[in-house]
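Annotated sample (chain length 223).
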Amino acid sequence: MRLEIIEQQSRINLRQKSSSIDVLKRLEIWEAGETYFDGERDYGYGGYNYDGRWVGFVEKLTSAYLLGPKSSLLDVGCAKGFLVHDFNNSSEVGNAVGVDISLYALLSGVRSGMHGTFLCCNSTSLPFLDNEFELAICKDTLHNILCEDEIVESLIELKRVSKKTWIRVASYNTDNQRGVIRDWATFARSYYSTVKWHRIFKLAGYDRDYDWFHPSEYIEDVK
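Output written by the structure step:
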């Protein structure tokens, strides 16, 4: 079911250089970590710092999924762990764990005081037990780096380790919308139409909650 937890916001400052760099440069930027998270806006976040914005998201998750003091959360693609930190600091819910493939991001978060357990691993092979978490989320992550087969593997893993799951992925319905994502998402290699995403969901047996991300406009859910 489509579940819109995060309000869609238009981002007009597109990363003009991101679509023109070659594959080796992309890998170099990603491997450096600092360039992607804390370097120029053209190649990534342009500075990714804690500002407390995820406190409200924790409240929305708590309400949407009826979470309580014993509810655990897994954030796949947690970056510097801001959401994990705010979840762990809430008295309304239980504990949160974050995983990401960027060691730089994880270390930066810990060094800045983010509270939680953080692991460096790939979403295709999560080191957790079946149904270990009440809720697993994966926001704006699966369309980055991964190929289609790896997305299927990741969806299977997300469903395996959690009782409930919510994901958000980059999607489009027109060629113009596709071009905007291409210019916006520096490392996105698997952004698809909503129709194709639904095919991927079916292939992975993913029948849980999802939403679409697009940097400039609302995307209709076309199956």
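Annotation: Strands lie at 73-76, 96-100, 117-120, 133-139, 162-172, 192-193, 209-213.
Annotation: The chain has eight helices and seven strands.
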